[in-house]
Each structure stands twice: as C-alpha cells, then as structure tokens.
Amino acid sequence: MPRANEIKKGMVLNYNGKLLIVKNIDIQSPSARGAATLYKMRFSDVSTGLKVEERFKGDDMVDTVTLNRRFVDFSYIDGNEYVFMDKEDYTPYIFAHDQIADELQFIPEGGMPDMQVLLWDGQVLALELPQTVDLEIVETAPGIKGASASSRTKPATLTTGLVVQVPEYLTTGEKIRVHIEEKRYMCRAD
C-alpha cells in the first residue's frame, strides 16, 4: 500500500469502504518542527458522485485500487449525456454532464487525442485527459505591438469557454497550448 505522499490526481482510493477518485491535492507544510506534512485531498465518490474531502499525514498508508484504462474518442452528445467510443473495440462509454463538467472545459469540438476512460470491475469511473490541450483564442483584448518583452497578461476566452491568462501580445484566432491540471497558458501551439 502506498503512502499518502505518493498519491497523484486521478488515482482511486478504497477509503472507509468507498471508492474515491482523487480530484485535487493541496499540500500543507507545517511551520512547527517535527510536524508532519498534511495532504488535503478532494475526491469524487464513485457511487454517489458527491464531493468528499479528507486530510492525511504524509506517512499515512492508503489503499489504492488498480484500474483498467482504455483510450477513447469523443463520439456524440445525447441530451445530457456524452458518449465516448473505445478506440479498439468501439465500446460506448456514457458520462452524465455532471460527471465530467470539469473535463468538458478542455475538450474541443471533435474531441482530443489521448483521452482515457478509467474502469474498475467493468464499471466506468472517470474520464482522464492528457496533460495539455491546444485551443484557439476566440475573444481577448487586441494584441499590443512590442508587448513580447513585458510579462503582463490579459484574460482570453478559448473555444470551449475556458478563460485563461495569456501574454499581451496574443490575439484572437491564435492557437495556444493549455496545461489542463493548472488551467494555465503554456505556449503557442504549433
């Protein structure tokens, strides 16, 4: 069993008889000597979909669950449900809008490469995205000539509706690479 300090976002824990997917981890370093680092983890309960928050010390042992991962492509929307198809055997995996609301901020129309569905015992648990995605800027303030030397930023709305801070020299219509976990601009896309 791994320690709490080895847990990463996207892993699934068996905690108090419930399967919990790690959605976010905040690390709190103590100021006192000898105190243990605390890991505040936000989870999504697999069976109910409710958000759960727990705290662990870095050396606490936690029970992880081994998952089956399948590469998928976004297929279509059916009302409030999003259907993804397995790339190998074309099995459809269906998610309710609420299950993947955070992930939808990063999925452009037509989908994106390297998306994975997490399965456990035949049950669909979550949709996992790659680390980065390339999106187009649809709305931002006009670019300022010569602003590439400054480090000031401005908000930009992307094709999916996500708003990120971008350098002042970028303009509407440019493609940028976004770090999904941190929701931040990385660079211009190729």
Written overview of the protein:
- The structure is a single chain.
- Helix content is 2%, strand content 49%.
- It has 3 domains: 4-57, SH3 type barrels; 68-128, OB fold (Dihydrolipoamide Acetyltransferase, E2P) (Beta Barrel); 132-188, Nucleic acid-binding proteins (OB fold (Dihydrolipoamide Acetyltransferase, E2P)).
- The strands form 3 sheets. The chain has a 5-stranded antiparallel sheet with strand order 7-6-5-8-9, with no helix packed on it. Strands 12-11-10-13-14 form a 5-stranded antiparallel sheet, with no helix packed on it. Strands 1-2-3-4 form a 4-stranded antiparallel sheet, with no helix packed on it.
- The chain has 190 residues and is an all-beta fold.
- The longest helix is centred in the middle third of the chain and has 4 residues, at 101-104.
- It is built from 1 helix and 14 strands.
Outline the fold blueprint.
Elements: E1 12-15, E2 18-28, E3 38-45, E4 51-57, E5 68-78, E6 81-86, E7 92-96, H1 101-104, E8 115-120, E9 123-128, E10 132-140, E11 153-158, E12 163-167, E13 175-179, E14 184-188
Antiparallel strand pairs: 1-2, 2-3, 3-4, 5-6, 5-8, 6-7, 8-9, 10-11, 10-13, 11-12, 13-14
The computed structural class is: mainly beta
* Secondary structure tally, helices: 1
The residue fraction in helices comes out at under 10%
Number of domains: 3
Let me know the average pLDDT.
84
- Give the N-terminus to C-terminus distance in angstroms: 42 Å
**CA gyration radius, whole angstroms:** 19 Å
In spatial order, strands of the major sheet run 7-6-5-8-9
What is the fold-level CATH name, i.e. the topology of the largest domain? OB fold (Dihydrolipoamide Acetyltransferase, E2P)
Percent strand: over 45%
Uncertain residue segments: none
Largest pleated sheet: 5 strands, antiparallel
CATH class of the largest domain: Mainly Beta
Instruction: Please tell me the CATH architecture of the largest domain by its name.
Output: Beta Barrel
Number of strand segments:
14
Shape: flat
Keywords: Elongation factor, Protein biosynthesis
Family: Belongs to the elongation factor P family.
Organism: Kluyvera cryocrescens (Kluyvera citrophila)
GO molecular function: translation elongation factor activity
